[in-house]
Amino acid sequence: MLESVRHLQQVARKWNINPEDVLLIALNASGARSPLTKPRMRFKLHLDSRPDAPLFLILSLGRQDSPFELDEHELRLNGEKVGEIDGIEDDDAVLGYWRGGTRMLTLNSNALSQCTGCVFCPNTLEDASDPKIKPLDLSGYLGALAANSGMDDLSAVETVTVCTGCFLHEHLALGHLAEVRAAMGENGCTGTLHFLSSVLTGEDGMDAATGLGPFHLTLTVECFTERRQILKESKAKLTPGEMTAALGRAQQRGITTDFTYIVGLDPIEEAVEHLKTFVPVTTTFPRFQTYQAHNAFMDVYRTPGSESIEWHLAMCRSLEELFAPTGLRPQWWQNYRSPWCFTFAGEELTGAKI
Fold it and tell me: Which domain of life is it from (predicted)?
């Protein structure tokens, strides 16, 4: 992917893109070699070239073929230090965590063991904890989380995101979301309820979602080719047309819409052909994520060519051509695997990186 810091600089100059974004794409795609014993860790990274812009990352370790090496203190590219590490911890499944300071609260509030999993999901590879918050406990958990974060309540929280993918049916998801909204209200939060899922698609479901207050739907698209082999059934059964129709239903009801997509699973041409149909039904920037392969088995699902940094930069340019005219822009604090951190289509990105 990258041979050295010198190679990184050459690629950045050739593509006229900042070297930090090139490095972060390569790091997410390659993982790292590490003496740490866990297969996946989350941490804060201070790049040497931008020490005042700390970044959160979640990375697969144990990749012996990676040009990157990471320990408790620093990140190296083929032996040359490129950043400093702190706050490193096991990426187990926690009940809740913050993004963007305390602007967004993310909840894993349903049991992960109910999910059959997609091949790229790290939770299927680990003996991770299996959190599930009972309805009667949810309000108390949110209150305790606020107190532990030095907050009187959650009135300043802009978004609560439910990101577990473990609901088998639309009505089960809506029931849980109603419980989350009630618990939010009991803790003073009137912000947006954000849901990442493939099960909320129907007319009745969208009607019910509008009754939950400000609502944001992120449809888990992920890929377009080999969907039956890569995705769990609830995702795989949806066609691109059905997915854009679902986002259209949400958009018509005033629901904020976007989608998740894994960069590196589809050939560029096929990806762009489908993704252009999503532009009209997307109201906030999609969550494009660089594919992280955690082992050799997961490498099999990379689309041919995506093992090179040039492939990724070509894909980025194609995605920029699709979404730059919309005015929508990515934010790193919302997506730690984004192909864009500091610039998008030559435009400087502002806002907190963590």
Answer: Bacteria
Whether 62 has a pLDDT exceeding 70, the answer reads yes
Model-level pTM? Answer: 0.92
Residue 32 DSSP symbol? B
Domains and CATH numbers, the chain: 92-289+300-307 (3.20.20.70)
The two three-digit tokens of residue 329, written as one number = 């822009």
- Which contacts of 269-276 are long-range, i.e. CB under 8 A and separated by 24 or more positions? 270/224, 270/225, 271/224, 271/315, 271/318, 272/318, 272/319, 272/322, 274/224, 274/240, 275/319, 275/322, 276/322
Q: Which of 338, 345, 303 is nearest to 323 (CA)?
A: 345
CB 222 within 8 A of CB 260: yes
Confidence of residue 323 (pLDDT cuts 50, 70, 90): very high
Q: Does residue 169 register a pLDDT over 80?
A: yes
260-301 pLDDT, tens per residue?
Answer: 999 999 999 999 999 999 999 999 999 999 999 988 888 999
Residue-wise over 315-348: b if at least 16 C-beta within 10 A, else e? bbebbbebbeeeeebbbbbbbbbbbbbbebeeee
- Answer whether 201's CB lies under 8 Å from 237's CB: no
Nearest C-alpha neighbor of 272 from the set 229, 316, 231: 316
What is residue 165's three-state secondary structure?
coil
Residue type, 188: G
pLDDT band at 351; cut points 50, 70, 90 = confident
